[in-house]
TrEMBL record:
Residues that hold Mg(2+) according to the record: 19, 21, 181
Gene name of the record: gph
Name of the featured protein: Phosphoglycolate phosphatase
Organism: Azospirillum endophyticum
Family per record: Belongs to the HAD-like hydrolase superfamily. CbbY/CbbZ/Gph/YieH family.
Pfam family for this entry, one: HAD_2
Length: 230
């Protein structure tokens, strides 16, 4: 049911907003490679995949801070800022070499877009890398609007970027389903007042999904169309 209000007089769903890392794209390998290129320049030891997975979700500044903290400590502010900017130029130059869409993502986005739903991305990843990653993986064209971790003064778990995305999509929260992978997605989408918050079972969450105030955990991404209306 995407074009009429349901029997409880809830507005029909007109849009789906997606988180990016851990929801649409398994991106952690490229984040690890960029981190390790920076660490090599600093003469520090590398970080591994599980460590980087646990560092993702709060945007690039936090990721770099956690990488530095795990490999010898966070340097003084000026050097830490230089490390962030160096990481971003390494990562943004090629954010997709080792990154893949999760199973069912391309086909499901295509089906949802063809059904007339407006699709958007709300990620904590900076916009430069986000735009390039979506383009490289061939899914940029499905989205009417994309907002990144540097699009607004605050990022998820703040509702600000979710509400900003909905404004760009031209829909209200009550007409929107949010699909994410972690605790920040649930907090941001709930605070924005979206109709439903659904989670994927495979992402980078750092807390058990069962304890979060979501409206359902998908079996896989291809499960999504059947879960939009109930
Ligand atoms: O950049 C990050 O930390 C994670 O981004 P996400 O919001 O797409 O999961
Ligand atoms: Mg995520």
């Amino acid at each position: 049911m995407t074009d009429t209000a349901d029997s409880l007089n809830r507005p029909a769903i007109r849009a789906v907003a997606f988180d990016l890392d851990g929801t649409l794209v398994d991106s952690v390998a490229d984040l690890m490679h960029a981190s390790n290129a920076l660490l090599a320049e600093l003469g520090r030891p590398p970080v591994d995949l599980p460590a980087v997975r646990s560092f993702v979700g709060d945007g690039a500044p936090k990721l770099v801070e956690r990488v530095l903290a795990a490999t010898g400590g966070i340097p003084a502010a000026e050097e830490a800022a230089r490390c962030l900017s160096r990481f971003l130029s390494i990562y943004e130059a090629d954010p997709s070499a080792h990154s893949v869409l999760y199973p069912g993502v391309a086909g499901t986005l295509d089906a949802l877009a063809k059904s007339g739903l407006r699709l958007g991305v709300c990620t904590n990843k900076p916009m430069g890398a986000t735009a390039r990653l979506l383009d490289d993986l061939g899914i940029a064209g499905f989205f009417t609007a994309v907002v990144g971790g540097d699009s607004y003064p605050t990022r998820k778990p703040s509702p600000e970027p979710v509400l900003g995305l909905l404004g760009r999509l031209g829909v209200g929260p009550a007409e929107t389903v949010f699909v994410g992978d972690n605790e920040h997605d649930v907090a941001a989408a709930r605070a924005a007042g979206v109709a439903r918050v659904l989670l994927v079972p495979y992402g980078y969450a750092r807390v058990p999904l069962d304890g979060l105030p979501h409206d359902g955990i998908l079996d896989g991404f291809a499960d999504l169309p059947g879960r939009l209306s109930c």
